Amino acid sequence: xxxxxxxxxxxxxxxxxxxxxxxxxxxxxxxxxxxxxxxxxxxxxxxxxxxxxxxxxxxxxxxxxxxxxxxxxxxxxxxxxxxxxxxxxxxxxxxxxxxxxxxxxxxxxxxxxxxxxxxxxxxxxx
Length: 126
Hints:
The chain has 2 helices and 7 strands. The protein is α/β, with parallel strands linked by helices. It folds into 2 domains: 11-58, Signal recognition particle alu RNA binding heterodimer, srp9/1; 65-126, 2,3-Dihydroxybiphenyl 1,2-Dioxygenase, domain 1 (Roll).
């Protein structure tokens, strides 16, 4: 479906976390994007698509995974060529792999701030 008019253009997605600099460093490495801004309590990465911002929130609580309601609040789906290699690299960068997984073609990982994100084979995206 094509929308003929728009009110706005998505410029940035922002995520709360315990340490903005650490989250930006992790996602910069995972996505291969540059850290475009970093300061006290805030950081941003820029690359292909909207920027991703990170804000340090006092007493931050990570989303639960698994969640009894199936909710992830918000997450990234990342297309990769090799699930095992991508998972290994993300873990080296600080991600963790929860024991509960949705199936064979997707892997759920948690970033250092506890946000769930998914890896899937790039071929699954057409």
